[in-house]
């Protein structure tokens, strides 16, 4: 397979933008990515578009890419619509990577976008409710207290994890404090005000033990990535960042290993490295406990040692392995279809040395982990991407 480079990245700020539509968000992100790469729309051979909830929130189905990008100068190009829950744009990246690695295209543009905010919050929550097998029995208590089926599921996983390893709600609060500090340094982040452990613990209870600050929020945004072959990248001014691995797996009902573990192992094998080689990572922290659980899933620490790792400071900005220096889903924001692409953009900036005060010094190898949906007690899909200079 041919080497594939990331040569341009761009995104919008993430937030709640009731006065903006998907088109305007996409146009801004695409413009920023192409400018960053030093190319034009004429250099884009194909477009891979990730969006999760457009049909539910605004009614746009079937031709989401063609509709969202109709004014972005990309009309007429091959467009691939990708819907895979929260992992939609990570999946789009995987497909674009395969297309270039195989020689089908020399260049491709990945766009992830989501417009989740709505005047009627029930519409936004309904979008999340569809990311499960609707014929699967709902566990007792799920969707009854918080109003969010996913936060109730995360809460149940958190309680089970706490019982197994002795973790405490204060450990979840430490994740949020770290997240908000990172976001305070990120001009694209949705929540940029720093917080304290006490403030996190005392925020409104959503689903025991998750408080409001421990849960990712509804938001809007778009992110775009210009991919190209190694030979094409050499013509451009930017320092290329290479995709070393991209693995995707789906849930196995009754399986012994969760999707994140399986995807991580496949990516490590593909890249020929181990977790000890990762300098900076963006993890799917849709809730604060998820980040801690992923430390263990991805081998950043031994099973049961995640509380010790978050308390050590080794995962802070500038730490041994800087985790979620963008602020992650908790603070940068989680507009579903844009999340995976935004993870890759942050890691690209980190590997280029362009992350400013968020920079992990000497970063050369990076990892992104992105989940989507729920199936049989596990995420329905997981992708792990490994990048390097």
Automatic annotation (TrEMBL):
GO terms for molecular function: acetyl-CoA C-acyltransferase activity; lipid binding. Transmembrane segments: none annotated. Its EC number is 2.3.1.176. GO terms for biological process: lipid transport. It is an enzyme of class 2 (transferase). InterPro entries: Thiolase (IPR002155), Thiolase-like (IPR016039), Thiolase_C_2 (IPR055140), Thiolase_CS (IPR020613), Thiolase_N (IPR020616). It comes from the Bacteria. Residues 260-381 form the Thiolase C-terminal domain. Residues 4-231 form the Thiolase N-terminal domain. Keywords: Lipid transport, Lipid-binding, Transferase, Transport. Pfam families: Thiolase_C_1 (PF22691), Thiolase_N (PF00108). This is propanoyl-CoA C-acyltransferase. It comes from Eoetvoesiella caeni.
